[in-house]
Amino acid sequence: MKLSRHMAPLLLATLVAVSAPVCAQTVPAPAPDTTASASNAGATPLAGDAVYKAFHGEEGIQRIMDDFIVRITTDPRIKDRFANANLARLKLLLVQQVSYLIGGPQTYTGRDMKTTHEGMGLQNGDFNALAEDLQLSMDKEGVPFRAQNKLLAKLAPMEHQIVPR
Amino acid sequence: MTHRSHLALGGAMFGAALAFTVAADAAPLLDQGKLLLTGGVTNVEGAAGGGIATWATITGYGTNDGIGGNVHATYADVRDYRLTDYGAAVGLYNRVELSYARQDFDTRSVGPKLGLPQGYTFSQDVYGAKLRVIGDLVYDQDSLLPQISVGLQHKEESDKLHVIRSHAFGIRSASGTDYYVAATKLFLDQSLLVNATVRYTKANQGGLLGFGGPKSNDYKPQFEGSVGYLLSKKLVVGAEYRTKPDNVGLKENDWYDLYAAYALNKHVSVTLAYANLGDIATFKNQDGVYLSLQAGF
Ligand code: HEM
Fold it and tell me: Which overall architecture, per CATH, does domain B3-296 show?
């Protein structure tokens, strides 16, 4: 399912309102838990909001994730991994997570990285492919390379949680 | 081993890597899944590193579950000498690196002044093996732990005049093995790479002028340091420094370089450097340009 830029806010509003997944091919997954600890985000946030600004704030992160969801669901290396994913939920949580990690105002309300990706049998190459897609989405938004690396430095250690040894 | 068998070995490695390429469709063993430039580039001794320094990185674009290989050709043109270098390397599961490099060091018009024929060329084969012991260059961003590897480089001169030359300079051996420990740290949040390597060696001018000499025939620890600044996914610029022993008593100098490594994509990269090799066999200030091309699969 492909979310257009206009449809996304509408869908998200619905999602929040009914607190239920909106995708047709949804896999049962808990709705974002507003009482969940932000420590599930997998890293401590950056101090200050310089990097958040370099990502063009909330709107920039939204645009990056719109683009990113399209990339990961079409990238031949990893698209099959998302065949049953609830993409609306995934996008919402990624926006929260990235905003939280780079010093934005959002908190992350999803599950922790280990629990989330457990049993998917993800490999080192999947992780890197996803990272490359994210780089392309950040490039498209015009996020400076140095600021991109600040986020990637937060995400990189999550490989140890996401990819089983 | 003879020169021919050295070449055959290099060829066999290349062939094996090509065979993997052919098999790539069946199983994505040649997965090209490592992030751009995170394996380093091929250095002057055929190992993954910068230009003159060896790093802890494992060559190629294979992931922890894959294999990657490359071939390289390098050309360094300094004041009185010219170095050409070619070879092949494979990285296995981001754990083991095997490499071969052939170095030809052309003495050009300096030869006769050293009692050698005009254009006399010293040649050396370098066989390398490297094992990543601990740490991950990319993922360990939440600790100070670098990626640490240990390795060895066996070097054999194939120099017809070795006996005569050895006599003149008191060089002890035409072959030798270097052992090293390399630690490479990527500070991704600073877009900065730092490397420190300690090499135990008896080599004179990296082995091109043999091993050991009248002043010393003992292994001595030498240091290789590199820094690199990531300007983009594709481009890193930096500097390197490498100390060398003075076994022969010809006042062997340290080496340094300023380099830029550019990856066009995961198949082709180019390293361009200003290299300063100091004085070599009484000829002063051997500085010039270093250019290396690398093609991988
Ligand atoms: C640093 C890297 C990664 C981050 C930050 C990340 C983040 C997330 C987040 C926040 C969620 C939602 C959690 C929740 O539902 O509570 C999620 C779910 C998911 N992720 Fe990741 N992820 C990463 C790597 C990967 C990789 C490499 C893959 C596969 C190629 C992957 C595939 C999935 C899938 C399939 C879901 C579940 C979607 C669903 O069940 O609806 N993730 N991820």
Answer: Beta Barrel (2.40)
